[in-house]
Amino acid sequence: MKIALVGAGLAGKQHIQTILSNKNCTLDLIIDPSQGAYEISKKLNTQYFSNIEKALEKSNPDGAIIATPNPVHKKNAEPFIRKKIPILIEKPLSSDVKSALDIVIHAKKQNTPVLTGHHRRHNKIIQKAKSKIQSGDLGKIIASHATCWLFKPNSYFNTWRKSLGGGPLLINLVHDIDLMRYLIGEIDCVQSFESNSIRGGDTEDTAVVLLKFKNGSLGTLSVSDTIISPWSWELNSNENPIYPYNKQTCYWIGGTHGSLELPKSKIWKSVDKRSWWEPITHSNYKIGKYKNYPLVQQLNNFLAVIENKEEPICSGIDGLNTLAVIEAIKLAAKTNTAVKPELLKK
Ligand SMILES: NC(=O)c1ccc[n+]([C@@H]2O[C@H](COP(=O)([O-])OP(=O)(O)OC[C@H]3O[C@@H](n4cnc5c(N)ncnc54)[C@H](O)[C@@H]3O)[C@@H](O)[C@H]2O)c1
Predict the structure, then answer these.
(1) What DSSP designation does 171 have?
(2) Measured distance CA(91)–CA(82) in Å, rounded
(3) Is the CB of 104 under 6 A from ligand 1?
(4) 54: closest CA among 71, 34, 29?
(5) In testing the pocket of ligand 1, which one of 13, 35, 90, 297 has its CB within 8 Å of the most ligand atoms?
(6) 172 by DSSP, 3-state: which?
(7) In 72-185, which residue ranges form alpha helices assigned H by DSSP?
(8) pLDDT at 209 (0 to 100)
């Protein structure tokens, strides 16, 4: 299958490597107005275009991966959807719910698959954790906590990352929220506080969030891109070689019959009786052999969707609903109230 790559920046370069290493597809063309992207296409001997319309006059890819800044996801998705070309759009699906909904509606009308690049869902650690939770091994899930504390240097904050949508809620916590929805269930209501005491400007640099799930479970999350710490999925999962690997825990999921630490895949249970006076013990369950690089599994799912062999593991609607939760978190922080996200049914 011929795949087009739109946006050859930080994320796009990883998609290029993933496409090149997959025997079931080829990198058909790169679309990106930057000089850097032009040079990459020269080096790889791949077709190059500075804009999508021109590219689609000359080429007819089987699918496209869109890895451009969030505010232009909708604009860049439309020409592909018009031509019924399946697309995988990097997370977040768009920079706001309204434009994300436009993408989903347009794709539905054109009967064209849209996937959202919440690649962590494809991680075998997450797939296994989901089946453990669904099997009832932990009992009823009562509460969960996720920590995402990182430190991003000033050089990371180019023009678009300094404006709305460039803060850690949309860049980082959106992944954690998506996973909590995937693992625990749909979110009913959120509360939150945010601050930007370090970087200032329009975007948050830190936020704390309370979640109430529709199944009654409760969750807390804490995110910051101004804290030096080893606790975040980015630094703990070893799924992306650009981050140093720290073998720490960043998610805790607690049930009536046991609790789970991720990404260590460690389950804690009572040795005998369930009681705080009784000993508890832990065990690590086996994940099985896998490539610890979910972009590979994500691309495989995308190719199978193009061939009509699989459903998306993370669809456009999934991306839209995760974004709706992030918008609810932003609104909750702004209004100091509890907010119910408006979610779209599948
Ligand atoms: N899944 C992940 O873990 C992950 C990680 C990083 C970024 N992302 C997402 O990937 C997307 C890109 O982020 P990034 O960090 O790679 O940004 P970036 O700034 O490094 O790269 C963006 C690229 O898109 C190009 N571009 C801009 N407008 C364009 C247009 N209209 N048409 C074609 N190309 C255009 C730019 O020239 C640049 O090369 C964002 O949505 C971001 O949230 C996801």
Answers:
(1) I
(2) 21
(3) no
(4) 29
(5) 90
(6) helix
(7) 73-82, 97-109, 124-135, 159-162, 168, 174-183
(8) 98
Half-sphere exposure of 257 (CA within 13 A, CB side): 8
pLDDT at 291: 59
Give percent of the chain with pLDDT exceeding 90.
86
Determine the distance separating the centroid of ligand 1 and the alpha carbon of 114, expressed in angstroms: 17
Contact, 187 vs 179, CB < 8 A?
no
Q: 126: which residues sit within 8 A by CB, 6+ positions away?
A: 120, 179, 182, 183, 262
CATH of domain 2-120+295-315: 3.40.50.720
Residue ranges per structural domain of the chain = 2-120+295-315, 123-288+324-335
Residue type, 254: G
Q: Which residue, judged by its Cα, is nearest atom 33 of ligand 1?
A: 32
Low-confidence ranges of the chain (pLDDT < 50): none
* Distance separating alpha carbons of residues 31 and 28, to the nearest angstrom: 10
Nearest in space to 252 (alpha carbons), one of 275, 273, 270, 233: 233
In CATH, the number for domain 123-288+324-335 is 3.30.360.10
Same fold, 2-120+295-315 and 123-288+324-335: no
Evaluate: CB of 68 within 6 angstroms of ligand 1.
yes
Q: How far is CA 95 from CA 41, 53, 67, 169, 311, in A?
A: 28, 22, 13, 11, 25
Count CB neighbours of 334 within 10 A. 11
Taking the CA atoms of 124, 125, 126 and 132 in sequence, report the sign of the dihedral they define.
positive
Output the CA–CA distances (angstroms, integers) from residue 318 to 78, 85, 192, in the order listed: 19, 19, 22
Whole-number Cα distances in Å, 38 to 6, 17, 18, 34, 224: 12, 16, 19, 7, 34
Residues in the chain: 346
Concatenated DSSP letters for 192-211? Answer: EEEE-TTT-SSS-SEEEEEE
